[in-house]
Amino acid sequence: MTFPAPFYRWRPHPWHGLTVGPEPPGLVHAYIEITPFDLVKYELDKETGYLRVDRPQRSSSQHPTLYGIIPRTYCGVRTARLMASAAQGDGDPLDICVVSERPITRGEVILDSRVVGGLPMLDGGEADDKIIAILATDSFWCAVDDISGLPEALIERLRHYFETYKLVPDEPPHVSIGPAYGREHALEVVTAAMEDYIEAFGAE
Predict the structure, then answer these.
(1) Where does the pLDDT of residue 8 fall: very low under 50, low under 70, confident under 90, or very high at 90 and above?
(2) Over the stretch 103-149, which tens digit does the pLDDT of each residue have?
(3) Which residues make Cβ contacts (< 8 Å) with residue 54, sequence separation at least 6?
(4) What is the pTM of this model?
(5) Distance CA 192, CA 79 (A)
(6) All structural domains of the chain with their residue ranges
(7) How far is CA 115 from CA 43, 180, 187, 189, in A?
(8) 27-201 architecture in CATH?
């Protein structure tokens, strides 16, 4: 029996086994960890590639969009250099928030997304950018090619979520977020994270 190429006899690791996307850095894959309907924070287990329960959310805040990672990216030295106040990258794959008009209720899905901007998040002195993208096949948001085309209220919700989702009572916040940036800078961040990945793990 012959199999189509490429054919995976075993499930590929979402971070290392998938490609960055069809036309990176502008059109990238997003592996979704969390949907807007989740009250539990799921996170990719780096060793196995399965989703791990990180923690139930302490507050009632829910993620405004789909949320996951861009495969074969790594927030290292190059990514950190793009954020003036960052001492280093957070050592994780680059995070991505994907806007979709139709509700997508399942995690652990792969989708194509168009990069339109991002939020420069600093977490404990580490660069932890949140790339913002549009579901590539979404006909409702198809005219949006930059973050300026998205409703300001949506960007405010994203900012509020990331400013509060790690808050612990009686402890000072250790997350700060600068002004949102547009597509041009977001493409630089994705490119830097792709290059950081190659340096950390190799091209193949």
Answers:
(1) confident
(2) 999 999 999 999 999 999 998 899 999 999 999 999 999 999 999 99
(3) 40, 41, 42, 43
(4) 0.94
(5) 5
(6) 27-201
(7) 22, 13, 7, 11
(8) Alpha-Beta Complex (3.90)
